[in-house]
Amino acid sequence: MRNTSVDTLDSTRRAVLALSTTYAYGTLLHWHEHRRAQLLYGATGIMQVQSAQGAWVVPPQQAVWIPAGVSHQVCMLGVTTRSLYIEPADAPRSGEGCEVLGVNPLLQHLLAQAVGMPLLYDEKGRDGALVALLLHEVAAAPELPLHVPLPQEARLAALCTAFMQAPDIHRTAQDWSVQLHMSLRTFGRHFLEQTGMPFQQWRQRACVAHALSRLAQGDAVTTIAMDMGYDSPGAFSTMFTRIVGKPPSALRADLAV
To answer: pTM value?
Structure first.
């Protein structure tokens, strides 16, 4: 369905409803929440998602799972979405936070079919069977490591936010510990407690998140790598491929489709 409001979806007596929307580049959906859980799939472009728990960058042809009632905002970089709005009682994932999910070809096809269903689809017919299979596939979708958690402590949060805006791989845990007047060991414990991951792992994810946004803007891989301080595009590509599952050159090809 297109051009249907979320309020209309909320009042429709169906467990799962699908909606397709195309957004102008750079559209920002300011902080909001949904009564239903949402699977937000980007058929094209890149989505930048934020909640109180951190930031997620969603590559093309992948999805973000947003539980019911979670406040979030989304920046759309050339995105056409296919969304599922799911009653909380029927939600196929039990986590309390957002997740970036890998979307296999079957789930992609099911989403494309779902957005063509009428609002009051036949729950006992083909459309109802399609919805049941959709829920199974969403439940089975793997989580991708594209979450960049943000700490709650103000001083560390400020450092993390500044780094995410202009990542530099030469910024070390030692540098940050000096700024926070902590020993390196104390800083390591503090960072892990606040973010749930070691500093080096967080730094790599922040670099990937920044790179994905730059790729969506059409920046060259070499330029991105050099701006973040990598010695060579190859070193950057190796790190990026390990986290995202494909090289940045392949992501650029996806974005050009």
So the answer is: 0.82
Angle of CA points 163, 165, 169, to nearest 5°: 45
pLDDT in tens, 192-208: 999 999 999 999 999 99
115: pLDDT strictly greater than 60: yes
Q: Which residues pair with 74 in a beta bridge?
A: 29, 49
Which amino acid is it at 77? Answer: L
| Contact between 32 and 68 (Cβ < 8 Å) | no
The alpha carbons of the chain give a radius of gyration, in whole angstroms, of 19
Residue with tokens 């979708």: 141
Q: Which residues of 174-193 are buried (b: 16+ CB within 10 A; e: fewer)?
A: eebbeebebeeeebbebbee
Helix (H, G, I), strand (E, B) or coil at 65: strand
Interatomic CA distance for residues 86 and 66, integer angstroms: 10
Half-sphere exposure (CA, 13 Å, Cβ side) for 116? 7
Q: Can you tell me which residue has the tokens 């070499």?
A: 222
> Could you give the count of Cα atoms lying within 13 Å of 8 in the half-sphere of its Cβ?
10
CB 12 within 8 A of CB 18: no
Which residues, in sequence order, are bridge partners of residue 58? 47
Question: How deeply is 89 buried, as exposed, middle or buried, from its count of CB atoms within 10 A (0-12, 13-18, 19+)?
Answer: exposed
Give the three-state DSSP class for 145.
Answer: coil
Reference 60, options 156, 144, 117; nearest CA is 144
In whole angstroms, give the CA distance from residue 84 to residue 40: 7
For the segment 40-78, what is each residue's pLDDT rounded down to a tens digit? 999 988 899 999 888 898 988 899 999 999 999 999 988
Q: Which residues pair with 81 in a beta bridge?
A: 21, 42
